[in-house]
Amino acid sequence: MNETVNIRELSDLIASKSNIVSLVKQGMDQTIVGQQHLVESLLIALLANGHVLLEGVPGLAKTLAIKTLASLIDAKFSRIQFTPDLLPADVIGTMIYSIQKERFEVKKGPVFANFILADEINRAPAKVQSALLEAMQERQVTIGEQTFGLDDPFLVLATQNPIEQEGTYPLPEAQVDRFLMKVLIGYPSKTDEAAIIRRNIAAAKPTVNALVKPAELVETRAVVNQVYLDEKIERYIVDIVFATRFPQDYGLNDLQSMIEFGASPRASISLAQAARANAFLHSRAFVIPDDVRNVCHDVLRHRLGLSYEAEASNITADEIINNIIDKIAVP
């Protein structure tokens, strides 16, 4: 009975906080045409305190989406254009000697912001990509002998172009695993594209005003962390992740030769966090299996190591995840 009361109280608390997310979503819809999955993924990442890796061809509003989000939340935004000649100091900052003060001083880099757009992250060498690792995981940056904490909220949105591979560097597995989700962005529909044309050639462009304070978002995230996750849902998440490691134990013998390595324990944590955020977006105080299934592809697709046989057969990570979801019993 106590649990029922708690769920009811939590439902009322979620209802009181959901208006903040509604305001942000309405503001995004005024600027971004279509791309609902992109908008929802950004909101889930915000609520789950995670980062997003976006993959899509240029011109699909990836930059516009995060700039709009930063403006709506009255947060600081930085864009870092990753290029082959970029240095780690260009990302996190460096020590500069001050002639007037006769000492070295810290000059902070663009990573010191609430929202970071790492544009075409795979165009920079691994040393530069790894400069983001400490910031993404530990939410702090070390320059020289000093360590600086990053502001909250802190969201890294990295983009990469799936078409152009010349002059690119694959992301290290250690860094890819730091992203809560990898979201694939496709072309808009005909109706949406016509609306995009009308909106962009109109004389008056929509203005983006700050609707939410960062502190309000942090408070909302605390409520998301209270969303109830039943033990059956926990076991469901564990079964899905373990099926990527030991598919033969779940009657998926055909996948054994397709998977080089399965998802890490961080995937299980990410699935639980993203499922909670998805439940909150739908004004629910508890996680249901559909919440896990809705975020499963985005959370797992970049954490599976495909074998040469899978790549030769044009088997994608999404197809493997589909087979796993179809096989694992739903609680």
Secondary structure: elements and pairs:
Elements: H1 2-31, H2 36-48, E1 52-55, H3 62-72, E2 77-81, H4 88-92, E3 93-98, E4 103-108, E5 115-119, H5 126-129, H6 131-138, E6 140-143, E7 146-149, E8 155-160, H7 173-176, E9 181-184, H8 190-201, H9 214-224, H10 231-245, E10 259-261, H11 265-281, H12 289-300, E11 305-306, H13 308-312, H14 317-327
Parallel strand pairs: 1-8, 1-9, 2-5, 5-8
Antiparallel strand pairs: 3-4, 6-7, 10-11
What does it look like?
This protein is α/β, with parallel strands linked by helices. It folds into 2 domains: 2-217, Rossmann fold, CATH 3.40.50.300; 227-327, Magnesium chelatase subunit I, C-Terminal domain (Helicase, Ruva Protein, domain 3, Orthogonal Bundle). Helix content is 48%, strand content 15%. It has helices at 2-31, 36-48, 62-72, 88-92, 126-129, 131-138, 173-176, 190-201, 214-224, 231-245, 265-281, 289-300, 308-312, 317-327; strands spanning 52-55, 77-81, 93-98, 103-108, 115-119, 140-143, 146-149, 155-160, 181-184, 259-261, 305-306. Strands 2-5-8-1-9 form a 5-stranded parallel sheet. A two-stranded antiparallel ribbon has the order 3-4. It has a two-stranded antiparallel ribbon with strand order 6-7. Helix 1 crosses helix 3, helix 1 (2-31) packs across helix 9 and helix 10 (231-245) crosses helix 11. Residues 1-5 have low confidence and may be disordered.
So, the CATH homologous superfamily of the largest domain?
P-loop containing nucleotide triphosphate hydrolases
Which CATH top level class of the largest domain fits? Alpha Beta
Enumerate how many helices there are, as a single number.
14
Strand content: 5-15%
Low-confidence stretches: 1-5
For this structure, the CATH topology of the largest domain is Rossmann fold
Q: What kind of sheet is the major sheet?
A: 5 strands, parallel
| CATH architectural type of the largest domain | 3-Layer(aba) Sandwich
* Number of structurally distinct domains: 2
Q: What proportion of the residues is helical, as a percent range?
A: 40-55%
* Bulk shape: globular
Structural class, from helix and strand content?
A: alpha/beta
Mean pLDDT: 86
Quaternary form: single chain
